Amino acid sequence: MGLAAAGAAIVANNWGKRCAPRGAAGQKTLRAYTVSLNLARFDRKAWQSDDATMDAIAESLDHIRKVPVLTPRMVRGLQPVDPLALRAGLLGSNPDGLFQL
């Protein structure tokens, strides 16, 4: 499987799971994915065990190419996440640890 096909498979697998639980009224939020980021360049900073390196990784992700998965027209046509599916997806989660918009 090529990288593009692998990326598409990951997006398809995660499509129903990517939604903002609060602040966006359960809107579907996956709009694009980034190309692969080689984490080996952060090995000297012990990224696997040092949380301080996460800012550098996030900065790198902000600057690499994004691959859109939806057109603007498709985004306008999205329906809100079903409330029951949203509740089921959040079972066992800690609300304080969820991303906030």
Please provide a written account of the structure.
This protein has about 100 residues and is mostly helical. The protein is about 35% helix and about 5% strand. The protein folds into 2 domains: about 5-30 and about 70-90, no CATH class; about 35-65, no CATH class. It has helices spanning about 5-15, 55-65, 70-75, 85-90, and strands spanning about 30-35, 65-70. Strands 1-2 form a two-stranded antiparallel ribbon. The protein starts with a helix and ends in a 12-residue tail after the last helix.
Tell me about the biggest sheet? Answer: 2 strands, antiparallel
Report the radius of gyration as a whole number of Å.
Answer: 16 Å
Find the structural class using helix and strand composition.
mainly alpha
**Helical fraction:** 25-40%
Q: Going across the biggest sheet, name each strand in turn.
A: 1-2
Percentage of residues in DSSP E strands: 5-15%
Q: Write the H/E string, N to C.
A: HEHEHH
Coarse morphology: flat
**What is the tally of beta strands?**
2
Low-confidence stretches: 6-10
* Total of helices: 4
User: Number of folding domains?
Assistant: 2
Distance between the ends: 35 Å
| Average pLDDT metric | 76
Annotate the secondary structure layout.
Layout: H1 3-14, E1 32-34, H2 54-63, E2 66-68, H3 72-76, H4 83-89
Antiparallel strand pairs: 1-2
Key descriptive features of the protein:
101 residues, mainly alpha, 2 domains, two-stranded antiparallel ribbon
Give a short synopsis of this structure.
By secondary structure, the protein is mostly helical. It has helices at residues 3-14, 54-63, 72-76, 83-89, and strands at 32-34, 66-68. The chain has a two-stranded antiparallel ribbon with strand order 1-2.
